[in-house]
Amino acid sequence: MLGWQASDSLPATWLRLDAGILPLWWDRLSANTSRESAALYAAGLFTEDRRRPIAQWFNPALDAALLVAPETSPEWPVQRFGIFYAPPGDGFERVHSAPHEWHPKSPRQSPTEEESFAAAIAEAERFLRVEMDFV
């Protein structure tokens, strides 16, 4: 299965899949809002699988997922990675976290896009470890 891998730091039930955004995200967001609102959410992230990089974890046993992806429009002066959670069964939530931002006009100035992405992934993995204590 191309793109699937297990993370050593997470429970084995969570699989990493970065190849493409899971259809689960669109289904969940559309069910919680409307198709029109879902299409506009996070600068169209869930309607157009074009924004990279992403990091994504999926738990098929729980029908749950976690996503790290750019959430701001490409033309904004400050870019940000968001963390999105699809809890077991149904629902859609944005995980409130530290701002994982970078400035595209200053690509070498810290925090860079790579540093922001790495920090967002680390925070997402911490979220999954804590979340598993409650599921």
Could you characterize what this model shows?
The protein has one domain. It contains three helices and six strands. A six-stranded antiparallel β-sheet has the order 1-2-3-4-5-6. It is globular.
- Can you tell me the number of structural domains? 1
Radius of gyration: 15 Å
Helix content: 25-40%
What shape does the CA trace take?
A: globular
The largest sheet is: 6 strands, antiparallel
The helix count comes to 3
Counted beta strands: 6
Uncertain ranges: 1-8
Widest beta sheet: strand line-up: 1-2-3-4-5-6
What is the strand content? Answer: 25-35%
Name the structural class.
alpha+beta
Distance separating the two termini: 27 Å
Order of helices and strands: EEHHEEEEH
Task: Please tell me the overall pLDDT.
Answer: 86
List the helices and strands and how they pair.
Blueprint: E1 4-6, E2 15-17, H1 23-32, H2 35-40, E3 55-59, E4 64-70, E5 79-86, E6 93-102, H3 113-132
Antiparallel strand pairs: 1-2, 2-3, 3-4, 4-5, 5-6
Structural features:
135 residues, alpha+beta, six-stranded antiparallel beta sheet, 27% strand
TL;DR of this structure?
The chain has 135 residues and is α+β, with helices and mostly antiparallel strands. 27% of the residues lie in helices and 27% in strands. It has one domain (12-132).
